[in-house]
Every structure is written in C-alpha cells, then in structure tokens.
Design brief:
Layout (H helix, E strand, L loop, with lengths): L2 E14 L2 E14 L3 E5 L6 H8 L7 E10 L2 E2 L5 H7 L4 E4 L3 H4 L6 H11 L6 H10 L5 H4 L9 H14 L4 E5 L7 H17 L3 E5 L3 H7 L2 E6 L2 E7 H6 L4 H8 L21
Parallel strand pairs: 3-8, 3-9, 6-7, 7-8
Antiparallel strand pairs: 1-2, 1-4, 4-5, 9-10
Bound molecules: adenosine-5'-triphosphate and magnesium ion (MG).
The site of magnesium ion has 3 residues, from helix 1.
C-alpha cells in the first residue's frame, strides 16, 4: 500500500494575547491511497486545525510547534511558495462548511472556477467549465454561469465549491463539515454527490464531521479526536463494533441503538454528537 499522506507528531498552538491554547498535541496519522479517513470528535477537539495544518493554511495566530506533514516524501512545511502552490488546491483540495467564506463575493462563479483551472495549468475553456458544472449536477450552465455567489442557494454554492476543489484533479480531498450548514434534504444530495465523485476521481479523503452516519457511509477508517489528540484510530467497522476508548464509547452511546445497524445516511439527522 502506498502511503500518500503522513502526519507525524504534529503539535499546534493558538496564541491569543498572552494565552496559549494547545489545539493539537503530538498528532500522528497516515493515509494510504484511496483511504477515506473520518475525523470525529466534539467541538473544539482540533479537527479543523488538523485539516488546515495539512495545507499549511492556519491563521496567523496559530503556531506549529512540532512535527511534520508529508505529502508522499515531501514535508509540506519545508516547501517553497511555488511548490506549496502546486499542492495547495492542486494535489490536495479542501472544502469547508461555509462556501460563502471561501468563494470570492465579487467574482462570477464561472470565472472563479476558470481562475483555479488557470492556476493549476488545466484547460480553462467554457467547455471545460461547463463540464465541471455538469459534474456537480448543476445543469443550467448558461443560466447561472454569470451569477455571483450570493445569488445562489447554499446547496448550489456548495456544488460550486466542490467543482472548484476538483477542477485541478487533486489526489486528496479534505472536507471539513461540508454539509453541516445545509438543509437535511440538500445535505443528503451533496453527500451522495461527494460519494460518487470520491469514487470517480479515485480520491483519498479526509472527512471531518460530527456525524457518525456520514463516517459509516463514506469512511473506511476513523480517527477520534479529543482535546487535541487522536485517542483512537482504526477501521470504521471495527471501531463502531468495538470501540476501545471510553470517550469513543460515550460518543457512540448517543446514537440510538435502533439506528446503529442502519448503514445509510438516511438517518443522519439523529446521529450528530454535539
Ligand atoms: N483562530 C483561533 N484562535 C484561537 N483559538 C482557536 C482558533 N481556532 C481554533 N482555536 C481553538 O483551538 C481548539 C481547536 O479548535 P478547532 O477549530 O480545530 O476544533 P474543531 O474540532 O474543528 O471544532 P468544531 O467541531 O467546533 O469545528 C479549540 O480550543 C479552539 O477554541
Ligand atoms: Mg471545525
């Protein structure tokens, strides 16, 4: 098995005034090609910090105090500007909960996608952009291509984000709660779409979520985070059947027993753990 991403002994702190908030403590985890790793854990446990660290896009108040993130054999933290540019949004893409904060409000959506294609040296013709719209099941290309992000619904914006994330033909997709802000029916549609695209693009995935239903359906492995550490990690089926850590057990105990056998995310509304 080819290891594509490995995070080794990663520690990150946020410095807020005089206060130091340790957000990641000695986190190590690696992904083989085509793994789909679900990262679960309560709010504030460090999930997003981990996702942002992988692309070295932490806010300026964050400090990486130890460790490395290797894409294949290259430590991301040691790359120069040009090298990181080819990886960030190129080889590794990220999608967030809130597409409005990631899309530029004053640029037409099709032009934002064109920009991404240009940066990553891909075909940026209208034909290619139309194909990307179709890929994320936005059929009405000519009707919406000149829209600005705020003119679209939340679900449509999330589709644009996905199109943009996949435009560069990445190897790894990091999804940080990509459906949390959407209505339940739209959540299901977006999850189905993501699941389909993960397969089609042969992606290696890190899926950050509060929702065990999503993990169950999409992820081959789970890492459970608590207070900045990965406290348990392994195959999804094994962890769900036989959680070893008391914290994992307590997370799972909030899922009604009747739902524990259901394998689809039809029931995800009841599976969150906040
Ligand atoms: N910009 C920041 N400045 C200061 N502290 C931060 C910042 N971002 C995160 N933190 C702190 O770092 C810790 C980890 O936060 P992080 O956002 O990674 O958690 P999370 O697991 O993604 O939570 P959620 O499920 O709510 O998204 C928390 O204690 C949080 O308060
Ligand atoms: Mg988060």
């Amino acid at each position: 098995m080819e290891t594509i991403l490995s995070i080794k002994n990663l520690s990150v702190q946020y410095i807020v005034g005089k206060k130091i908030v340790p957000a990641l403590k000695n986190v190590s985890v690696s992904l083989n090609r085509n793994d789909a790793l679900g990262i679960v854990g309560e709010s504030g446990s460090g999930k997003s910090t981990l996702g942002l660290s992988i692309l070295n896009i932490l806010p300026k108040e964050a400090k990486i105090t130890d460790g490395e993130v290797c894409f294949r054999d290259r430590n991301i933290f040691q790359l120069n500007k040009e090298e990181i540019q080819t990886i960030r949004g190129g080889k590794i893409s990220i999608i967030f909960q809130d597409p409005l904060s990631s899309l530029n409000p004053v640029i037409k959506i099709s032009e934002q996608i064109r920009e991404t294609l240009k940066v990553h040296h891909q075909d940026f013709s209208d034909k290619k952009i139309k194909e990307l719209f179709e890929m994320v099941q936005l059929a009405n290309f000519y009707g919406i291509k000149d829209s600005y992000p705020h003119q679209l619904s939340g679900g449509m914006r999330q589709r644009i984000m996905i199109a943009q994330a996949l435009a560069s033909n990445p190897e790894i997709l990091i999804a940080d709660e990509p459906t949390t802000a959407l209505d339940v029916t739209i959540q299901k549609e977006i999850l189905e779409l993501l699941k389909k695209l993960i397969k089609e693009f042969n992606l290696t995935v890190i899926f950050i979520t509060h929702n065990f239903g999503i993990v169950y359906d999409i992820c081959s492995r789970i890492a459970v985070m608590y207070n900045g550490e990965i406290i348990e990690e392994g195959k999804t089926s094994e962890i769900l059947k036989n959680p070893k850590h008391p914290y994992t057990r307590s997370l799972l105990s909030v899922i009604p027993r009747s739902k524990q056998k259901i394998k689809r995310f039809d029931v995800i509304e009841n599976w969150t753990m906040e």
